[in-house]
Amino acid sequence: MGLKEVPRGALTGVGKQRREGKVPLAGKAGGVEDILVVEGLTKTFGGLAAVKEVSFRVRPNVIKAIIGPNGAGKTTLYDLLTGLYRADGGRAIFEGKDILGLQPHRIAALGIARTFQTVRIFPEMTVRENVMVGLHHRTRAGMFASALRLPRARREEAWMWEESLAYLDMVGLEMQAENLAGSLPFGQQRLLEVARALATGPRLLLLDEPAAGLNDYETRELGEIIKRIRDGGVTVLLVEHDMALVMSISEEVLVLDHGEVISEGTPEEVRNDPRVIEAYLGTEISA
């Protein structure tokens, strides 16, 4: 099943709010020149630097790709930004707040979501229920209210039930809503992760190789969806090995090699940088 085209403005609201076009999925980073500022970020394992003095900035509402050979430090960088690893040095300022050292759930609550290189879904839950896990982050009813089925808990459950289908519709999985997530083909499990991450309502979305397992058609459609996510007010960091996808949808590209930044600029600038060509074993990067 290919990805369903998401019309422009689809992220201005979902469920009932989406149809009325009143409530945005995620607020834009108003008044913030750079939504993310990374300065001197460093992480070592056993004396080897996986990330070494990495610095870069991310403007609001752009798609910024992070590329590099295997082992360049891309996923480790994500792990530092989302609190899975503690940095040995540096800063990461998200909307004016240093997030290094915070627990992953605190970082998520601030408005950062991610997908993983290895698919992480709940295979024994339905596709819809997987997205509802992401939506639960945005509800307020506690365990007591939910256990007693109090009115607020029932309203929120009904909201999550409707809202989850809207997110699945964004990635073309609405017809799979009641199927077990583990029964989906690998590529569709990737898309489910994207839908669940979006359901948390992020302002910064970190995608880790979302095109892995997708065919050429699905990859092109995924690119369109990522652009619509950006147009809906969500800034996107994209770690990806598919250079055609990277060069076609990114406004900015950051290149890592052996944990260090070796190039940064527009796709055209990076594609023609001799240091980047050398890092990719002398093979010119083409779109």
Description of the molecule:
The structure is a single chain. The chain is of the alpha/beta class. The protein has a domain of 197 residues: P-loop containing nucleotide triphosphate hydrolases (Rossmann fold, 3-Layer(aba) Sandwich), CATH 3.40.50.300. The protein has eleven helices and ten strands. The radius of gyration is 19 Å and the shape is globular.
Question: In terms of topology, how is this protein built?
Answer:
Blueprint: H1 15-20, E1 36-45, E2 48-58, E3 63-67, H2 74-81, E4 89-94, E5 97-98, H3 104-110, E6 112-114, H4 127-136, H5 143-147, H6 151-170, H7 186-199, E7 204-208, H8 216-231, E8 235-239, H9 243-249, E9 252-257, E10 260-265, H10 267-271, H11 274-279
Parallel strand pairs: 3-8, 3-9, 6-7, 7-8
Antiparallel strand pairs: 1-2, 1-4, 4-5, 9-10
